[in-house]
Design brief:
The protein has about 260 residues and is an alpha+beta fold. It is about 35% helix and about 30% strand. Strand 7 and strand 8 form a beta hairpin. Helix 1 packs antiparallel against helix 2. The relative contact order is 0.14. The mean pLDDT is about 95.
């Protein structure tokens, strides 16, 4: 697909994501105990998930009816060479408690290749954007991956999932600590990957993560010089698999310690 066609869609999508983020903010539960339906351990579904996804799907469909669409909640509802992939509320466990670390994530794929992404975290007043070959930005300012080269000064996040046995999680976290890195866990895979892209984090590991969580973030990582494991090549288009994203200066050390190959 031509660069012009992708840029046209990207500009339209920015407005759509803003409206979707406004809707999510309006529906956000107040601070307190979790609100919504619990699908499994620590896995929540709120009314906003469906409403935000429906808004994006309808607006994208009206503007670009020839494009495919895939959402976390409804799956693939339309097919096309260009495909939009949305996580309406990434970080739902945070959102359901009225916390601020969550986002609306929308990626555009040309075939199997991510070409544009928008991650908007309205409660944090932050928007990440990227188009392949055109750089990546946070609130309009260029970003790049961290320059850190020593794991003893690195900050590394690991996502938690009920799909990962406790022993594996503990072993990977122990490997991070053995490197001298400072561990973190924030509850939003898309925002963690965006943090690697802008240098707030030096690494992020998620043992089981899905395409809708990463479609927008992969473009950010690529445009900012971060390195990451071959998620798309190794099956991430169809199922949840492992993803490691890292600052280039500690990529080898982190990949070896965590036993996750990079590209």
């Amino acid at each position: 697909m031509s660069d012009a066609a992708i840029l046209c869609r990207f500009e339209a999508a920015r407005s759509i994501v803003r409206d979707a983020a406004d809707l999510a903010m309006a529906m956000r539960p107040p601070p307190g105990g979790p609100s919504g339906k619990q699908k499994s351990a620590q896995d929540w579904l709120t009314e906003a998930d469906g409403a935000v996804e429906a808004l994006i799907s309808e607006r994208i469909g009206a503007l670009f009816p020839e494009d495919g669409f895939q959402g976390e909640e409804e799956g693939r509802t339309r097919t096309g060479r260009l495909r939009w992939v949305v996580d309406p509320i990434d970080g739902t466990s945070n959102y359901a408690r009225g916390r601020s670390r969550w986002c609306v994530s929308l990626g555009l794929m040309d075939g199997d290749q991510p070409v544009a992404g928008i991650i908007q975290a309205p409660a944090l007043h932050e928007t990440y954007t990227a188009v392949r070959g055109h750089g990546a930005f946070l609130n309009g300012r260029p970003i790049k991956a961290s320059p850190v080269t020593d794991t003893r000064s690195a900050m590394v996040e690991m996502g938690w999932s009920n799909k990962v046995p406790d022993g594996i999680y503990a072993a990977k976290m122990a490997a991070i600590l053995e490197l001298g890195a400072m561990p973190r866990s924030g509850g939003s895979g898309a925002l963690a990957l965006a943090d690697v892209a802008c240098g707030r984090l030096d690494g992020y590991l998620e043992m089981v993560i899905n395409l809708w969580d990463v479609a927008a973030a992969l473009v950010l990582l690529e445009e900012t010089g971060a390195r990451f494991s071959p998620f798309l090549r190794d099956g991430g288009l169809d199922r949840g698999i492992t993803l490691l994203a890292t600052a280039p200066g500690i990529a080898t050390d982190l990949a070896v310690a965590l036993a996750v190959p990079l590209d």
